[in-house]
Amino acid sequence: MAIRVLLADDHCMVREGLRLFLEHDPELEIIAEARDGAEAVDITRHLHPDVILMDILMPIMDGISATATILAELPTIKIIVLTNVLEHSSVVRAVKAGASGYLLKDIQADELCSAIKAVLAGQVQLSPQVSAHLMREVQCPETSISISKNLTERESDVLRLLAQGHSNKDIARHLHVVEDTVKSHVRHILSKLGVQSRTQAALYATRLGWATPDPGGQHIL
Fold first, then answer.
1. Mind listing the pLDDT tens digit of every residue in the chain (221 residues)?
2. Does residue 59 lie within any of the structural domains?
3. Which of these, 109, 95, 113, lies nearest to 203 by C-alpha position?
4. Is residue 128 part of a domain?
5. Are 36 and 10 in contact (CB under 8 A)?
6. Are 221 and 212 in contact (CB under 8 A)?
7. How many Å apart are CA 105 and CA 186, to the nearest integer?
8. How far is CA 89 from the centre of its chain?
């Protein structure tokens, strides 16, 4: 079954361009387009896409507010912020809103297709410049190490693999457990670390030295 994608961008030419090259991938299906954040929220409520490509600067409701609204109601939907905006506050707000990815619009078509599939599999997708901004938001090492001691050995294993970019299915296979067990571990990890998303948890683990970002690639964690 194809991955159902919603495009949310106020520029018609951007939406048309995205549709043009995404539709070349038989694993992806563009089910709708939204011209602003409010329309993205409304369409999502009715169509339940698998992944949303969300611009930030849109009229009526911006992309970050739309992301927060959607994920508060439908937390299983994956949202990738796709924008030209690289302001520190926007990056941080998007991740705190629950975005599974933050990519810049200069990304190559094949990389974007891969990113859509990766977030649906539970991976975090960040442009290198975005990762650099987010690292400054992670707690200081001393505090991180203290909190990390509250994780069980298995939770630590899961967090390391999560930070290395593995999906829940990959982690389950690696640890020889069922995927539901991994999902349970991830929920406990987020609770113990006091973060809201896999993205934040992955950055947390990177700050601990449990995963090293790849400075040359588009997809970091």
1. 899 999 999 999 999 999 999 999 999 999 999 999 999 999 999 999 999 999 999 999 999 999 999 999 998 899 999 999 888 788 888 888 889 899 999 999 999 999 999 898 878 888 877 776 665 655 444 445 555 568 888 998 898 888 777 778 888 999 999 989 998 998 898 888 877 777 778 777 766 666 544 433 444 44
2. yes
3. 95
4. no
5. yes
6. no
7. 30
8. 17
Residue 126 lies in a domain: no
The answer to whether 122 and 198 are in contact (CB under 8 A) is yes
The whole-angstrom separation of Cα 36 and Cα 59 is 6
Q: Write down the residue that tokens 């495009």 correspond to.
A: 7
Q: Cα separation of 129 and 17, whole Å?
A: 24
CATH number for the domain that contains residue 198: 1.10.10.10
pTM (global) more than 0.85? no
Domain assignment of residue 38, yes or no: yes
73/107 same-domain check: yes
Count CB-CB contacts under 10 A for residue 106. 8
- Structural domain boundaries, residue 76: 3-120
